[in-house]
């Protein structure tokens, strides 16, 4: 690489000094400066372009608060509730929520140090193992592509709430939703941010309203005047799922962990968005810290309220002739309490949530693909960005996989949604495990290269123990998520058991095949902490100056705190 004195637009790495990056940022702009810092020279940066930091603070905060409140919380939780009972669901969501929070603390420290588009594959490749970066990058991309299908499939289920006789083919609705999602992603990241801000606002207001309505129903303030108390806990707090006695109740609890993992899926997308966020060193830590409150109020409190408002034995939760919001425990609770209009409102919000989640997963999937390309583990043409900073090849290729949703036209859309859900949940757990391993390598690298963690903008507590504990928890979920077919050995395995086994463990096979492929192909060793690349891209970010926002009155002070 040329000497910086001879070529001021050639970037050198290896320490925290800027090596001319400040001049590039000042003369060519922040995007070119960041790209030159990552790619090593300004010619490559200008050839491919780079993403723009177009996500404002309010976009990031609302993505963190409500970006992944989707069909899992509104719709999918009903299945877990029917199988396991109210206390098992509450414990399952609380335990998984604690693990997710620990993982997010690890990810928050890395993404505040170096906020990159895609982020996770780069962190794993830089700090742990290039083969791990390859495996998790492609795993994340495939996970987002499949989740995109799952959310669109869920939207098709939800629309049938109104179109009960299916006078309009579901393929029409699938096509409309796909077009909307692609349009929100292909033009500029700020459009995606505005859409998510609006979607998240609707979802947050709705879930707060449902929580309030649930408390009213619980305490007897609904039209039926029935004060439920803990009646439904007494009739079956922890239901037997597979087996009897304590074994059956434990299997019910364990089944909720997988369901909760699906509901929490995508919680890490705030770190993916960090690479396109304004003032990331301020906005990302704020968003990461709010993950705790999101888990506590929306998921843990939500699962508690559902458990005291409706019986887990209510036949509407599992009725085959019902669809969309009709099977949502929130809607069933309101309908049983004599609140008739709410089901239509909730169904509209569930439809909005499914569209929002699909929008978010197309965005994150395209950025994961972009991140893999930055690692040199995907074709270079994927790095090409539009003038507005959108990696259009990555968006287009990810969007193509949404066409798999049309599979739901040949079978029950609800069955396809559940099949997609099982596939995605384990891919999600592999992502979280990889984040923990990446952080462990990052923690060692900071120590080996003399970086004092007390100087970091965001420092996660109890490290690296937090990362290790959460890593082993998600490993257990991966290993034992497919226990159901092994308990049904009487008469041998039929098609249902084979399908359950396949959806539970095919992702394990895919992940390790990806890892082995890159390890054998490149034969790259594990990253040594002393030589881990914790600096590339940091100098350009350090050189950027963001204006300080000073509130002028109480309203602005509250808004700046919220957003």
From TrEMBL:
Main subcellular localisation: membrane
Keyword annotations: Amino-acid transport, Membrane, Transmembrane, Transmembrane helix, Transport
Family matches, as Pfam families: AA_permease
Annotated compartments: Membrane
Organism superkingdom: Eukaryota
Segments passing through the bilayer: 62-84, 140-159, 171-193, 199-221, 291-313, 345-370, 390-410, 416-442, 462-481, 501-518
GO cellular component: a single term: membrane
InterPro entries (alphabetical): AA-permease/SLC12A_dom (IPR004841), Amino_acid_permease_CS (IPR004840), APC_YAT (IPR050524)
Listed PROSITE patterns: AMINO_ACID_PERMEASE_1 (PS00218)
Topology of this chain in the membrane: Multi-pass membrane protein
Domain Amino acid permease/ SLC12A residues, every copy: 59-526
Annotated GO MF terms: amino acid transmembrane transporter activity
Name under which the protein is recorded: Amino acid permease/ SLC12A domain-containing protein
Organism listed in the record: Bimuria novae-zelandiae CBS 107.79
């Amino acid at each position: 690489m040329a000497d910086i004195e001879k070529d001021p637009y050639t970037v050198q790495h290896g320490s925290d000094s800027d090596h001319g990056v400040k001049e590039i940022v000042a003369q060519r702009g922040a995007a070119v400066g960041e790209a030159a810092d990552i790619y090593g020279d300004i010619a490559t940066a200008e050839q491919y372009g780079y993403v723009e930091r177009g996500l404002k603070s309010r976009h990031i905060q609302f993505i963190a608060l409500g970006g992944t409140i989707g069909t899992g919380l509104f719709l999918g939780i009903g299945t877990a509730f029917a199988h396991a009972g109210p206390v098992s669901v509450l414990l399952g969501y609380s335990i998984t929520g604690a693990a997710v929070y620990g993982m997010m603390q690890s990810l928050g420290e890395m993404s505040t140090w170096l906020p990159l588009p895609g982020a996770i594959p780069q962190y794993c490749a830089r700090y742990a193992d290039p083969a791990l970066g390859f495996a998790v990058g492609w795993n994340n991309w495939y996970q987002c592509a499949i989740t995109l299908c799952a959310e669109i499939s869920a939207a098709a289920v939800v629309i049938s709430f109104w179109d009960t006789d299916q006078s309009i083919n579901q393929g029409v609705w699938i096509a409309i939703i796909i077009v909307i999602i692609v349009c929100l992603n292909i033009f500029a990241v700020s459009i995606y941010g505005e859409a998510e801000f609006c979607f998240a606002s609707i979802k947050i207001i709705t879930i707060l309203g449902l929580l309030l309505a649930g408390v009213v129903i619980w305490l007897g303030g609904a039209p039926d005047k029935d004060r439920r108390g803990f009646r439904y806990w007494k009739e079956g707090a922890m239901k037997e799922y597979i087996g009897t006695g304590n074994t059956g109740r434990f299997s019910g609890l364990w089944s909720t962990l997988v369901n909760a993992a699906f509901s929490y899926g995508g919680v890490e997308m705030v770190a993916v968005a960090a690479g396109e966020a304004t003032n990331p060193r301020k906005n990302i830590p704020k968003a990461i810290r709010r993950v705790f409150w999101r888990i506590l109020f929306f998921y843990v409190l939500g699962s508690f309220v559902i458990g005291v408002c409706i019986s887990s034995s209510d036949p509407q939760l599992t009725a085959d002739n019902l669809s969309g919001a009709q099977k949502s425990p929130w809607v069933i609770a309101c309908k049983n309490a004599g609140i008739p209009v709410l089901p239509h409102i909730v169904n509209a919000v569930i439809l909005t949530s499914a569209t929002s989640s699909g929008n978010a997963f197309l965005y994150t999937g395209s950025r994961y693909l972009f991140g893999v390309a930055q690692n040199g583990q995907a074709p270079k043409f994927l790095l090409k960005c539009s003038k507005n900073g959108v990696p259009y090849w990555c968006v287009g290729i990810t969007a193509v996989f949404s066409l798999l949703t049309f599979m739901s036209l040949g079978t029950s859309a609800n069955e396809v949604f559940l099949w997609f859900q099982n596939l995605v949940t384990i891919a999600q757990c592999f992502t979280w495990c990889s984040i923990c391993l990446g952080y462990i390598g990052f923690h060692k690298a900071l120590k080996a290269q003399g970086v004092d963690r007390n100087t970091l903008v965001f420092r996660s507590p109890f490290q690296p123990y937090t990362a290790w504990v959460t890593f082993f928890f998600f490993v257990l979920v991966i290993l034992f998520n497919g226990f159901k077919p092994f308990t049904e050995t009487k008469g041998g395995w039929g098609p249902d058991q084979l399908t359950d086994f396949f959806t539970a463990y095919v992702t394990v096979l895919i992940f390790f095949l990806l890892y082995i492929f890159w390890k054998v192909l490149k034969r790259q060793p594990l990253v040594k902490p002393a030589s881990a690349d914790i600096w590339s891209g940091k100098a350009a970010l350090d050189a950027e100056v963001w204006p300080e926002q000073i509130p002028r009155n109480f309203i602005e002070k509250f808004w700046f705190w919220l957003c």
